[in-house]
Amino acid sequence: MLVRKRYIRSVVNDLISAYKLAPPIDVERLAKELGIEVVYEPTDEGLSGFLLRDSKNDTAVIGVNKNHPVTRRRFTIAHELGHFILHNYEGFHFDDDKQSFQIREREPVTLKKRDAVSSQGSDFEEREANYFAAELLMPDSFVRTEVKNVGTIDLFDETEKILKPMAKKFAVSTQALIYRLTNLGYID
After folding, report:
1. pTM surpassing 0.90?
2. CA of 134: how far to CAs of 56, 68, 74, 173, in Å?
3. Looking at the domain 5-137, which fold is it?
4. pLDDT tens-place string over residues 22-76
């Protein structure tokens, strides 16, 4: 299945408009506005986070590995928001095989694990959540404005001068920004 890029961009644009968001997007505030609790816990390096949705009690929790860098934590929240908005399943969704988060006592829930295959980006829902996260943290319209302001981007000559400050403006890693710029066609 192909990622629903136009649909996801439309959903993100609606969120930006409805919640008056601007870079750097405050993903934690957005989660709270959507009624989702964000919990930070130290855990194994390989576990980025999870989404727990409990429709019966009308609650949702995003768990985030507090040992990860801030840019990674922001991406994790945005990624789990993508699952919350785009994929309607009940229970846990872990983005790793490990299960080491401590959260409040809850009724038993089903567990959807991310396995080695899905971590390579071949799982449809993971690709959509990743695209959603990139679109939310680095919205196309805002990236387009930034690129227009700086002109041509030479990946090798302008990392310090252009890419790092732009990544800082969006509060993402330089690697995530380069990936986004490449996907949007601004870098070959």
Report:
1. no
2. 30, 18, 10, 11
3. Arc Repressor Mutant, subunit A (1.10.10)
4. 999 999 999 999 999 999 999 888 889 999 988 888 899 999 999 999 999 999 9
Instruction: Please tell me the least confidently modeled range out of 4-13, 54-63, 76-85, 134-143.
Output: 54-63
Domain ranges for the chain, please list them.
5-137
Residue 150 neighbours by CB distance under 10 Å? 14
